[in-house]
Design a protein that fits this description.
Layout: H1 6-29, H2 36-48, E1 53-54, H3 55-60, E2 67-70, E3 73-75, E4 89-98, E5 101-110, H4 116-135, H5 143-155, E6 159-160, E7 166-168, E8 175-179, E9 198-201, E10 204-206, E11 212-214, E12 221-223, E13 229-231, E14 234-239, E15 242-245
Antiparallel strand pairs: 1-4, 2-4, 3-12, 4-5, 6-10, 7-8, 9-14, 10-13, 11-12, 14-15
Length: about 250
């Protein structure tokens, strides 16, 4: 895998900061009555006005600028005519490219007042991400991240979707390594973390089973049992003192 530093790392910081800023803009627009297509247009205007492009469009010819998933949709929901309603959970999954560098992050936000279960899975997924970030220390095993994520998910009573993982990122949207969200026996999990590694940590948790179903659109993955899900993600670089979150929202 690529080790990033110097000017390349500065390029990754620039696109990471831009994605972090976009979450403040997009979250402010989330409300009952707005469509996912309208949110996508807000994202497109934000990034294109700053010279950035959609990572999913560049890489996969995806039919939207960002991915927007609602309720039981776990990932890759296509923006369109769906209107958000009071009580929904909506995931904003934002990957973008600027000057040849990619970053990727996601957050699940409430639409108005949500149920106690929705609040629990939202908080549990954020806690799982936090545990994964703390595990991303130089010299640690890559697999330690997945162990930390899964432990929090299980403790909180949620499932981890084992088909869905984090990934390396940098000059391309998807690079090595695979970043598991569970205790994996894959040989990649034994890789030692070293400064300059850049990858995403992205727990995706479900309130029921760990099974997924593909939508008729060929993109959207939802929970097989129709229960709620949530998704939190950051792009990080491993540093001597611990992970630097490249996609952090402005303080």
């Amino acid at each position: 895998m690529t080790i990033y530093g110097g000017d390349e790392l500065e390029g990754l910081r620039r696109i990471g900061r831009l994605i972090g800023e976009s979450f403040d803009v997009l979250s402010a627009e989330v409300r009952p009555g707005i469509s996912t297509g309208e949110l996508d247009r807000v994202a497109a205007e934000f990034f294109t006005s700053r010279g950035a492009q959609s990572g999913p469009i560049l890489t996969y010819d995806y039919p939207g600028f960002i991915c927007i998933s609602v309720g039981d949709q776990v990932v890759h929901g296509i923006p369109g005519s769906r209107v958000l309603a009071e009580g929904d959970l909506v995931t904003l999954d934002v990957a973008a490219e600027l000057d040849g560098f990619h970053a990727d992050a996601a957050t699940t936000v409430p639409v108005g007042s949500v149920s106690p279960q929705a609040s629990r899975i939202q908080a549990g997924t954020r806690a799982a991400l936090g545990a994964g970030l703390r595990a991303a220390q130089p010299g640690a095993r890559l697999g330690d991240i997945g162990i930390a994520v899964e432990r929090v998910a299980n403790t909180r009573g949620f499932s981890v979707f084992k088909e869905l993982v984090g990934h390396g990122i940098g000059r391309s949207m998807h690079e090595e390594p695979t970043v598991f969200n569970f205790d994996s026996e894959d040989p990649q999990a034994d890789q030692r973390l070293e400064p300059g590694m850049v990858f995403t940590i992205e727990p995706m948790l479900g309130a029921g089973s760990d099974q997924l179903r593909m939508g008729a659109d060929g993109w959207t993955l939802s929970t097989a049992d129709g229960k709620l899900s949530a998704h939190e993600e950051h792009t990080i670089v491993v540093c001597e003192g611990g992970p630097e979150i490249l996609t952090a929202r402005p303080s």
